Amino acid sequence: MSTVLILVDHVGGVVPPAVGELATFGKRMGDVTAVICSSKSADLIPQLSAFAISKVIVCDGVEFEKFSVGATVQALSAVVTQVNPSAVLISSTARGKEIAGRLAVRSNSGLITDAIDIDANCVATQSVFGGSATVHSTVSHGTPIVTIRSNSIEIEAGSGAPIVEHVAVTFDGSDKATVTSVEPALKGGRPELTEASIVVSGGRGTDGNFAPVEEFADLLGAAVGASRAATDAGWYPHSHQVGQTGKTVSPQLYVACGISGAIQHRAGMQTSKTIVVVNKDPEAPIFEVADFGVVGDLFNVLPQASGALKLD
Amino acid sequence: MKIAVCVKQVPDSWAEKKMGSDGRLDRASADAVLNDLDEYAVEEALKLVEAHSPTNEAGEGSGHSITIISMGPERASEAVRKALSMGADDAIVITDEGLAGSDALATSLVLAAAIKKGAYDVVICGTESTDARMSVVPAMLAERLGYAQLTFAGSVMLEGSAISIARQTEFGVEQMSAPFPVVISVVEKINEPRYPSFKGIMAAKKKVIATKSLADFGISAQSAWSVVKDSAIRPPRGACVKVTDEGDGGNQLVTFLRERRLV
Ligand SMILES: Cc1cc2nc3c(=O)[nH]c(=O)nc-3n(C[C@H](O)[C@H](O)[C@H](O)COP(=O)(O)OP(=O)(O)OC[C@H]3O[C@@H](n4cnc5c(N)ncnc54)[C@H](O)[C@@H]3O)c2cc1C
Ligand SMILES: Nc1ncnc2c1ncn2[C@@H]1O[C@H](COP(=O)(O)O)[C@@H](O)[C@H]1O
């Protein structure tokens, strides 16, 4: 059976659920081998038993501690040469896509980014133009390298601890950038935006008061997002911006409150499975992509909705 | 310091997009503009030069140069003209029939050839083209050229012949630096791109845009490493159920979520 490599990219020693999605997709095409490029592999390996992974290849090295894209590319490309997999799957984060892009150049292989599905024959599905069109593509050259958006598939559980193999990596000095400090993104009590199955977002309509948005989000166990109008105004951190120049989210449920639905915002949320809107203006373009909308003031609608949830 | 700024001409993000019979974007159907995220790259190049120019201005007398590089159809020169009117010095447009349907691997191959030939110290890109939305070309350029990768920069500083940036991604913020030559990509929060002045627009008319083909760089056409099998406009969502809040909107919202088993 052919081998599919998946990259375990992590923050702070915690394997993100997105890795489970890579494993689930990978298993459709072959046996899944996870690659860890980290100095913290001892923390990471046990977490991988939760997923459908049969083997783990560990590249140890302090070089990886600095989050350098170049170091990970060197290690991963050495593993690709050794294993000759039928495909390499990586999460569609900014960093994941850069690693995938450089790996594609190094191995003279085709690259598909932001896939939302991939079948047993490695045909990838992408959603383009802000979710208004669907494209199926395949790689025609080399080893298919595909990055996959989180929240694309239900994770299949693992059936035991994978075999572990350690590989020594020699660095070729091609990574000329020096990382002088690393400040990991703050993790609040809420789920990570791109991983959450529910996202509640606020826009200019909140007028700077996110309290009703946060209360509703917390009752749903949701992450909180924001439009650029809200992040530009300093009402919410930029790391919570949803849209073209923010994050792309694809949750089961997206609730847009006081957001008009500019094309740049829609580009980041339009593939959400169900979209619910609260907006004063019945003509707001966000209603065009919604499944359910309340025309009304979010300061009345959200507290009432939160109240209804609290009765549960 | 020799700076190259890579800019792409893209269909207007506000325009409706159509797919051609080959499953790729029908570019003729939409207005073409300078990728708005690349305006931040042009602006950052101008700011770097202005901060290190004896005249406080870019252009002749600054001791530095800014060349705009773009790969695309012939009319890509319209977008390039806008970058020139902001204040860049000259431009190279690479256009070739063999490049139709290029993917990021092909684009980076061609851009890297042009950059190598010009021996630039600093290459500045946007973080993403609003049509392809891959965010991979800058990293691929670093890989192909063997230049240091300083991407997703939220700030850029020049000290002697080294650049430091604050890299901003979903993982957090990293301070990084590297000596020339470097490939930088800038996030859209980094600056506020200037509007071309009347003087700038007039001056741009006289600036040189060199049109090059693949043969000029001794490379042959390989347009893509991946193929589109088919594409379809996504069926519109079922009509939105719209209710007007008459004192019961919040309850109706929760009822909808319950019916859909979302709570
Ligand atoms: C290069 C570029 C990149 C961009 N990237 C992004 C991006 O990543 N993400 C993004 O979001 N935007 C992005 N934008 C900005 C985008 O074009 C819009 O300006 C922005 O999304 C508007 O935010 P908004 O919907 O919150 O504000 P507005 O458009 O002002 O809409 C506010 C809405 O709130 C409603 N409202 C007001 N008060 C209430 C109330 N009390 N109750 C209920 N509803 C109320 C109004 O009816 C209105 O529809 C980008 C723009 C550019 C040029
Ligand atoms: N055809 C092109 N010509 C010049 N620069 C490009 C081209 N395509 C992409 N770029 C640069 O690479 C950046 C990222 O693009 P992309 O990887 O396509 O999302 C853009 O913001 C541009 O700076």
Major interchain interface with per-chain residue totals:
A-B, 94 and 78 residues
The sequence of SSEs of chain B as H and E is: EEEHEHEHEHEEEEHEEEH
**Average of per-residue pLDDT values of chain A:** 92
For the biggest β-sheet of chain B, the strand order reads 9-8-7-10-6-1-4-5-11
Residue share in β-strands of chain A: 25-35%
**CATH fourth-tier homologous superfamily of chain B:** HUPs
The CATH topology of chain B comes to Rossmann fold
Alpha-carbon distance between the two ends of chain A = 49 Å
Please indicate the count of domains of chain B.
Answer: 1
Shape of chain B: globular
C-alpha Rg of chain B (nearest Å): 22 Å
Question: How many H/I helical runs of chain A?
Answer: 8
Strand content of chain B: 25-35%
Kindly name the structural category of chain A.
alpha/beta
The helix content of chain B, as a percent range, equals 25-40%
Folded structure, characterized:
- The complex is a heterodimer of chains A (312) and B (263).
- Chain A has helices spanning 17-29, 41-47, 69-83, 94-106, 211-220, 228-232, 263-266, 298-310, and strands at residues 3-8, 31-37, 55-59, 87-91, 111-118, 124-128, 133-139, 145-148, 163-167, 178-184, 198-202, 223-226, 253-257, 274-279, 292-295.
- By secondary structure, chain A is of the alpha/beta class.
- Chain A starts with a strand and ends with a helix.
- Chain B has a single domain (2-217), classed as HUPs (Rossmann fold, 3-Layer(aba) Sandwich), CATH 3.40.50.620.
- Helices cover 27% and strands 29% of the residues of chain B.
- Chain B has six helices and 13 strands.
- In chain B, the strands form two sheets. Chain B has a nine-stranded mixed sheet, with helices on both faces. In chain B, strands 2-3 form a two-stranded antiparallel sheet.
- The model of chain B has no long low-confidence stretch (mean pLDDT 90).
- The interface between A and B is large, with 94 and 78 residues.
- Adenosine monophosphate is lined by residues 6-8, 35, 37-38, 41, 69-72, 104, 107, 111, 125-126, 128-129, 132-138 of chain B.
